[in-house]
Amino acid sequence: MSFFISITLLLMFGTGHVMASDLCEEPAKTICSAPKSSAPVTEETIRDEASKVLGAKGLKTIYSKHGVSRSAVKEYKEYVKTVYTLLLDHFEKNGIPRSAIQAKIESIKERVATDLIAGKMGSSAHSSGPKSNQALAKRTKSAKVSFFPTNEAEAESFFEDCGVDGLTFQAYYADDRNVMTLCPGYLLNVLNSGGLDSMEIVVAHELTHGVDAGPGEPQFARYEKFVSCIQNNYANNFEKIDHVIEELGDPAQARLEKKMNELKAAPGDHALEIVQVELMMKNAKGQVKDLKATRQYLSKKLRRSPQEAETHSWELISDLGGTESLVEHLRTLPKEKRAMALSQSARMFCGDNADAIKLIKYGPLKDDSSHPPREFRINLLMNNPEVRLLMGCKKLEAPGPWCAASESNVMTARCTRETGIELASQCEDALYKRLRSAGCQPRDLSCDPGNGTEVACSIHSSNCKPASRAPGSSDSGTLSCGVATPAEELKVLGIPLPAVCILPEKGEPKFKRPQETDSGNTS
Amino acid sequence: MKLHKISMKWAFFVFFLPTVAFTDSEIRLTRESSVGGVDSTQILSLRCAENEIKSNQQAVCKIYRFNGASTEKVREVNVVEADEFLKKSFDLLSPFAGSDQESHSRLHWLLSFQGKKLEGMGTSKDPAKKQELLQSLMWIEGRLVGGFEK
Ligand SMILES: [Zn+2]
Prior knowledge:
The structure holds 2 protein chains of 2 kinds.
Chain A: H1 2-13, H2 20-25, H3 27-33, H4 43-54, H5 59-66, H6 70-93, H7 98-117, H8 133-141, E1 144-146, H9 152-162, E2 171-174, E3 179-182, H10 184-192, H11 199-212, H12 224-234, H13 242-246, H14 253-265, H15 271-284, H16 291-302, H17 306-332, H18 335-346, H19 354-359, H20 374-382, H21 385-391, E4 410-416, H22 423-437, E5 441-448, E6 454-462, E7 490-492, H23 497-500, H24 514-517
Parallel strand pairs in A: 1-3
Antiparallel strand pairs in A: 2-3, 4-6, 4-7, 5-6
Chain B: H1 8-15, E1 25-31, E2 42-48, H2 50-55, E3 60-67, E4 70-78, H3 79-93, E5 107-113, E6 116-121, H4 127-146
Antiparallel strand pairs in B: 1-2, 1-5, 2-3, 3-4, 5-6
Helix pairs in contact in B: 3-4
The complex binds zinc ion (ZN).
The site of zinc ion has 4 residues of chain A, from helix 11 and helix 17.
């Protein structure tokens, strides 16, 4: 029996090895091209099994027997529950008991709650009340998870998102009820992606939706710094222009004109849509000569569209929560297991309907309209200083996108020395001293001994208040972070500025780039 | 209910895009993905392309399902059956076309049949109407995925 199980495991999870160095250098490519399960359980298999179990109540008969009716809804509810149970059987066959799934979800909740209490989930403006870190941590821990509908009203909304067989690849969070729904289709994907580590980012992502937008909180208040960082620096990653241009096959001039008139008459700001319709009209008349140039023009025009960046920020905030939780999980794993765990978890960003786009040419949105492009999400994950530290990533040649979650920032340092024996503790000491002298409360310091001559550390700090703060100046005004002293001992990892610390809002950051620190002070 | 969803402004905008002759008749249900990244929208589609039918009298309509990263051709359906199904779907969905486009739903549907096109979202502001619409969509998706057997 155990022989059989191990063979099955090998078949199921016989995914190729993922190298940490590949992840560091080409994250999106490495994560999204990692081989998947060689023997995936298909949707068809699950449907067939459900038909066998349910017989006359199977999918084939529900809707012919009951037509459009409440009875059909009732049987749909039973159907999805059966699908869920069948999936659990498949997990079990692959050595994953249902208790392990539950335990995984609980441990992720715990990590998100711990991150909240530690002040890693943005800056809360409230020290008490429902939006305080403590209260939200409690709420996160008590979040319910729904795998199938339990009554008819629930069945209808469940259908909307999970589909008629429950097998839509979908997970979502409803903050009014504090319920996270994991469609059976999502579990099927977990089963086929090589194990429960693939749940890390998604589950924490969904739970984080309950953190940034709970009742009574102005949207993004907690993540204000992060959102403005995204909006000011990376809004041009979120163009949704290609699909519009690609769909200019049919002039339909009258329709475009009608749309244009509607837009012009409608209240509110429709500048973006107007630009697009203008382009479509021009194209329809054969006036668009160079689509590439037009795209460039438009992407400039659309740059820093607050609407776009805001919508995406909402999701990116949740990705941050996902990343924080993943970091905590990676910390518990031995080094050699981290690359695989990260890759499995981040694969959820890789959804790709390239085939669908080809077949249904005028089909879905290219950018799915709430989530930023996958490369951007993956880069943001992999540029997180703690992730880089845990994965042993080297300095980035070309710094990628990164924005810090909040003022509670992470400072990462790499200490290099010829003799590495006392290195880790020296690095720790130096970081602690540096932060204390800046009036911060350092916490969660972790150092990775590396190869003995180099050690990389990361540390969180909060409540940084400069010792001699001028009256009326902002808290974030004068903290200088980055290069820890003494310079001979510490060398800051080459991560773009916002990664290392939130800097004074105005003025030059008191941060030295590695090339600046290199000059004659390394031993 | 407040779910974390897409900017509907954009999704609707796409609905106004011109239809093309590529698809002669089709019913398509699309769900915006919440977990995935770009392009991980899910689509279920029954499509009958006229050029295929003309060149081959035996041609059939095809049902596809694109689910995140995986693509499945659910099965083929005979043209007469498909036509009957599309007609019934058209009748079911007509009362809901274009209505309540501001309401939030990840599910949208589109139907092209006999030169006419209907489209809308998977929900309605009016609870009774919403129930009726969802039951209709459930029936449609149930037959698409489960089969047309009587
Ligand atoms: Zn989300």
